[in-house]
Specification:
The complex is a heterodimer.
Chain A (H helix, E strand, L loop, with lengths): L2 H4 L6 H17 L9 E4 L6 H9 L5 E5 L2 H10 L5 E5 L2 H9 L9 E10 L2 H13 L4 E8 L12 H9 L14 H22 L7 E9 L3 E9 L5 H9 L18 H9 L9 H6 L6 H10 L12
Parallel strand pairs in A: 1-2, 1-4, 2-3, 4-5
Antiparallel strand pairs in A: 5-7, 6-7
Helix pairs in contact in A: 2-3, 5-6
Chain B lengths: L9 H6 L8 H7 L11 H10 L3 H19 L17 E6 L4 E5 L6 H8 L21 H9 E11 L5 E9 H4 L12 E2 L7 E9 L1 H8 L1 H14 L1 H5 L3 E4 L2 E2 L6 E4 L6 E9 L2 E11 L20 E6 L2 E7 L21 E9 L19 H24 L3 H9 L2 E4 L31 H10 L7 H16 L4
Parallel strand pairs in B: 1-7, 12-14
Antiparallel strand pairs in B: 1-2, 2-6, 3-4, 3-6, 4-5, 7-8, 9-15, 10-11, 11-14, 12-13
Helix pairs in contact in B: 3-6, 4-6
Classes of the chains: A alpha/beta, B alpha+beta.
């Protein structure tokens, strides 16, 4: 089952926040890299949420969406939001190599967001490798995958070997099952995934290397992992590194994003308390008439600027 | 006929600006009283000596120097398995990043004499003898290593002289400046220095070479370096030597073999001699793991597993998990390596007071197969290997009996093995079995992984998934036999 049959993509608040955090980072990158002719490659599904942001926020025109599902492809073409969005039918493993030779996309930087709704598996790994080996200079790679521990082996003891099989020598010999459980698994996947990306770029001697820039753990239902970085032209590498290593860099939050699904009324009332000089407490929420877990309050307070506003239209 | 390359200057050699194409009449008239300029340039030298060595091997060269220092401090004794030596006082710390490299040890330091006569001279003097069970045999190691690493280098040493006075000196090398003057002698300035915290040597390289930057950026390079160090210095680490990389201690690899009533690893020791130099040889081998049920190449490549032959020279592993003609596979009457032989591990250790007697290549990453000592060890290695091969053949006719016996064999550290002249493997009784039907088919890897997970483990070999799903279907549709 494809993800567009499972849930309306736009309704997941943590995912929505994560998306904005990624684009916030990319917007900052324009100061240190030449992103004027940036093209966008992603999995737009039938919602194209990221494509709309890319067009509105980053002013990207040329965009390619990859869709492997037969019916999904037809619906995606129907739903393409702009005339400059091209939908390619096929698996990413087949389409990506074609795009590397595409005349429209050649010789200009890309933002690639490979937003999988399943776990990091052999084909995801191979896609990541091929992008790092072939993407034009100054490209930005973002990858999202499912970080649920059980996806990597039913028993914890199986998981280190599974990761070794997937990611090869970057997985330390001393990785124990304890690092492959629950939230630790998401952290481990993010760390090793980024190490894998760095190693590929180093192994093929990409002149500007790979600069890790994105690491976002989030969950609405399934725990998800978003990682990625920049493949800068040699001259831009230092500027990019300085930017992403600064404390102001938005796309590497230390804590997982677990935004509460709120009604419009709850979100509006909470928002009216912010920004606040002191940290919002559970009592503050109870005082305005409802209740939330401490973790949910903290998540909302941190990300209320990015919290999505949705309305349901009842027919 | 030999040509003298008249007036073929150093700069021309380097720049490749002109290709010299002799014409017969020109040569005849011009070559009479000319001589070739055999003086190399430093640039050429730096380029050549670093060309054929891997960065990882350069780092190992520096570790070798440190280990030799420790060994000398411990009284330079043989490095056989049973020889007692405590190296727990000694540590080597390596710190590396995309901008710099540093290695520091506490092995008592390099003396000023060593520095002047060996470490910073080019090539050891012919008269020099080494009787210290070291592995730094060519005297080129340190220079080659630092040139490979960077262009701005500082080597510092602190040692205590015969009067127990601490002496400290430093050798700064700026490669770019050093190569500007080719006039002999090619020496480095030695200057006095602040003493290090403990007697030892510190080498810092900045201005890293592009190859070093690229490697030190790579997490997979760093993990592989740890693995190599864990394997190649495991015999030293077993004696207490500590090596750390970026603050984290490397744990030596365990070398173990399985032993039981039916399985006894071979462990022999003998002495040999080459050009008047004595060499002790220890050969150990047997079953590390039960052989695979299938001889099909499986998902794990042969290069990734730890089976095969290992060779150590004065304690340092120089060849690991070899499945090639270097150990002897496929030559001299050995069959070539085949996945059926997986499970075997053999280790041959050469120990000599003079490292020149060891079958060691200059990179210390391989065996000098022309060495007479090594050639004479090979038949014993072959006999051991042959027995294992025969066992894996016999096993195919009696797999259940073999598996039951293999299950009883427990891992034993090589340090605990008794001396046994020949490997003991079980004699198996062949049973007649119905003719097998081999199945081969391809499915998408994602479906295979899902089924593996459903059958109990995501890491099941594809073959296991095939067998289990056959059994499952067989039981369901045909019923238990």
């Amino acid at each position: 089952m494809s993800s567009f049959d499972a849930i309306n993509y736009s309704l997941r608040p943590s995912k929505s926040i994560q998306r904005q955090i990624v684009f916030d980072g990319v917007r900052l990158l324009a100061d240190v890299m030449d992103l004027d002719r940036l093209a966008y490659v992603g999995f737009g599904s039938i919602w194209f949420t990221d494509f709309v942001i890319a067009h509105k926020l980053l002013r990207i025109d040329d965009m390619v969406s990859i869709e492997s599902d037969e019916i999904g492809y037809s619906r995606a073409k129907f739903n393409a939001p702009y005339s400059t969005v091209r939908v390619e039918h096929g698996l990413s493993a087949v389409i990506l190599p074609k795009l590397f030779d595409d005349s429209l996309l050649a010789g200009r930087p890309w933002m690639l967001w490979l937003d999988y709704d399943y776990e990091l598996n052999d084909s995801v790994r191979d896609d990541v490798r091929s992008v790092i080996e072939n993407a034009p200079v100054d490209s930005i790679l973002v990858v999202t995958f499912n970080g649920l521990d059980k996806k990597y082996g039913q028993k914890p003891v199986e998981r280190p070997d599974r990761l070794r099989e997937l990611l090869g020598p970057v997985v330390p010999d001393e990785l124990t099952p304890a690092f492959c459980k629950a939230e630790e698994m998401q952290i481990t996947l993010a760390r090793l995934g980024i190490d894998f990306m760095k190693s590929i770029a180093a192994d093929i001697a990409r002149p500007g290397g790979f600069v890790p820039a994105f690491r976002i753990l989030y969950r609405d239902g399934a725990p998800m992992v978003t990682i990625g970085g920049i493949l800068p032209v040699r001259g831009a590498a230092r500027g990019v590194r300085d930017l992403v290593n600064a404390t102001s860099w938005p796309s590497w939050p230390s804590k997982p994003i677990t935004a509460p699904p709120l009604t419009m009324r709850e979100a509006a009332v909470l928002q009216s308390l912010l920004p606040s000089k002191t940290k919002l407490s559970r009592t503050d929420i109870q005082n305005v008439g409802f209740d939330l877990e401490d973790e949910q309050i903290e998540a909302f307070e941190t990300y209320y600027r990015q919290y999505p506003a949705f309305a349901q239209i009842v027919s | 006929m030999a040509f003298n390359l008249c007036k073929y200057t150093k700069s021309r050699l380097l720049n490749h600006e002109t290709r010299w194409a002799p014409e017969a009449n020109y040569v005849a008239t011009e070559l009479t009283d000319k001589k070739a300029s055999a003086n190399p340039t430093k640039t050429f030298f730096v380029k050549m000596i670093t060309k054929d060595i891997l960065l990882e091997d350069s780092i190992l060269d520096l570790i070798d120097n440190s280990v030799d220092g420790a060994w000398r401090s411990e009284g330079s004794r043989p490095m056989g398995l049973s020889e007692g030596a405590d190296l727990s006082e000694y540590s080597i710390s390596i710190t590396l990043s995309p901008t710099s490299f540093r290695i520091i040890d506490n092995y008592g330091g390099m003396t000023l004499d060593d520095a002047v006569n060996h470490a910073f001279s080019f090539g050891r003097q012919a008269t020099e003898t080494n009787e210290d069970y070291s592995i730094g045999v060519y005297g080129i190691g340190m220079k080659r290593a630092v040139f490979k690493l960077g262009t701005d280098i500082k080597i510092r040493s602190t040692f205590s002289d015969e009067n127990k006075q601490r002496v400290a000196f430093a050798v700064p090398i700026n490669v770019q400046t050093w190569v500007t003057n080719d006039a002999p002698p090619w020496d480095f300035d030695i200057e006095s220095d602040e003493p290090l915290e403990q007697d030892g040597v510190e080498i810092v390289a900045n201005g890293l070479t592009p190859g070093a930057v690229r490697s030190f950026e790579s997490p997979s390079f760093l993990q592989n370096l740890r693995r190599t160090i864990a394997r190649d210095y495991t015999l030293h680490m077993h004696r207490g030597l500590k090596i750390s990389i970026n603050g984290s201690l490397v744990v030596g690899a365990q070398i173990e073999l399985r032993a039981s009533e039916d399985f006894t690893p071979m462990h022999v020791e003998y002495k040999d001699e080459t050009e008047g130099m004595e060499v002790s040889i220890e050969i150990i081998g047997g079953m590390l793991a039960p052989p695979p049920d299938s001889s099909e190449p499986d998902e794990k490549a042969d290069s990734e597993n730890s089976f095969g032959w290992y060779v150590g020279c004065n304690g340092r592993i120089v060849l690991a998990a070899d499945k090639t003609s270097v150990a002897g596979w496929g030559v001299d009457g050995w069959p070539a390596w085949h996945p059926q032989y997986a499970g075997f591990l053999g280790l041959v250790l050469f120990t000599a007071a003079n490292p020149a007697a060891l079958p060691l290549t200059t990179t210390k990453r391989n065996v000098d197969t022309a060495s007479e000592i090594y050639r004479r060890a090979r038949p014993r290695m072959r006999d051991l290997t042959r027995k294992w091969i025969d066992y894996t053949n016999a096993r195919k006719q009696a797999p259940d009996e073999a598996k039951a016996k293999e299950k009883d064999a427990a891992l034993v550290s090589i340090y605990q093995l008794q001396k046994v002249d020949a490997v003991k493997l079980p004699a198996l009784t062949a049973r007649s079995a119905p003719a097998p039907a081999n199945v081969h088919y391809a499915v998408p890897v994602t479906r295979m992984k899902k089924l593996a997970k459903a059958l109990g483990s995501i890491n099941l070999a594809y073959r296991e998934v095939g067998l289990k799903s056959f059994d499952y279907t067989y039981n369901d549709l045909v019923g238990e036999e």
